[in-house]
Amino acid sequence: MTEPCLNILDGYGRKIPITTAVALYEGAATGRRMNTWGTSTAGPTSSVFSSLNTLRSRTRELIRNNPLVDGGVDSYVANIIGSGICPRWQFENPELKAALQQLWDDWVDESDFNGQLNFYGQQSLICRGLIDAGESITRFVPRPSNIGLAVPLQIQLLEADHLDESYNTIAPNGNEVRFGKEIDADGRCVAYWLFREHPGEHFLMNRNFGDRIRVPAYDAADAKGGGIVHVFKPVRAGQMRGRPWLASIIVRLREIDLYTDAELVRKKTAALFGGFITETNITGDPSLYFGKKDSDDSEGRDVIALEPGTFPVLPRGMDVKFSQPADVGQTYEVWIKQQLRDIARGAGWTYEQLTGDLSGVNYSSIRVGLLEFRRRVEQLQREILAFQFCRVVSHVWLDAVVLNNILPLPGYFQNRRVYRRIKWRPDGWPWVDPVKDQLAEQMAVRNGFKSRAQVIAERGGDIETVDREIAEDNERADQNGLIYDSDPRHTAKSGAIQKATDSALTDSLFPKEGD
To answer: Which residue, 106, 230, 257, 498, is most buried by CB atoms nearer than 10 A?
Structure first.
């Protein structure tokens, strides 16, 4: 009995088996040229199962030893994190908001369980982990309330190596463990099976080496704090583990590195030889014709000294051939630039950021290139760092504040959403020509296209803080009878004194004679 064959009709009404019709797409052909390419049907996590450890190791090797990659990663982290992605609470009650912000600022310097970084430095370290390992692990550590912390909570950062992607088993409670993550019957991650010690660290007294421990995943419904947050950039639905961000350019980077290194060695070797003297049936003392004998080499052969501006006569049978090392050619610079552009594109950088080469750009071209790069950075800031890490940290932190009676937040557990309305603000983007940008922002505000709050927020500031500081500056200036050219209440753009409309203020600043 044969299997049924589905047919479709071609443009002439002829029946074509569906298996033949697939071949009409050249990209799906399986002939001699294409039979070994792109035939894997591995799932989103299985595709990195056997490669993740190698990808991590090779990426870190490139960062350690390739100056372009090392500098590019630093540039990426600096653009994504800057001086920190900061919270701005959005609920009403300005006094409570200011108190909460001050408490956060006090805790920022105490957030690190290892005491090496502040909270914003931890953001940078997580970002580096995403680049070189594809993922980063955060562990919340509740602390005793009597050790002097502003909020008794700290964060411990762990490298992704602690989470063994090869660990697949059935947990004692019956849940399935996939790639080191424990999955319940509903398909949710409820715990992580972590190496107690980093698998790459080997010490004499490392008695816990190879031991795994079960650590619960962060649960938003549990107000006790603690748990694990797994930060990574998913690129396929259902993906359970991240991959290094430089995975697609590892081979290209390695080949370029080997090529340039070989070229440097070849040039260095060629430069060691000034020339070669050949002789055939020579008679007499060569120094009488060619130059003065300088010394003997290690084999006892004569070494003839050459002096500039001389015209020696070679003896019969002797010839001199000077070293002429091959050049890289006129196309070398064009070729290497194209390779570096491909690498920069694959990593998400601009060519100028990767190489520091600004020779071929002007103001307009570099600005257009930076616009696309900054759009990508904003996506990473919002979707990965702010959502997966900062948002969860703020939730656990607020729970700890209330549970430890540090700051009263009325009705918190009845309506957490009110206090969790936070906008995470990264640094603003400085431009090459800030005057034009300031004028454009001013026009947008005056035309009603933007608010001052939006402009300040885009630059990483807070409108309430800015207004409070301006009010304090103005009050201090008025008390001291000072008028600055930057004060629009009293001066025009040209610096001329404006006509005051407030007579009381005018009299206080410009008293009349006899007063």
So the answer is: 230
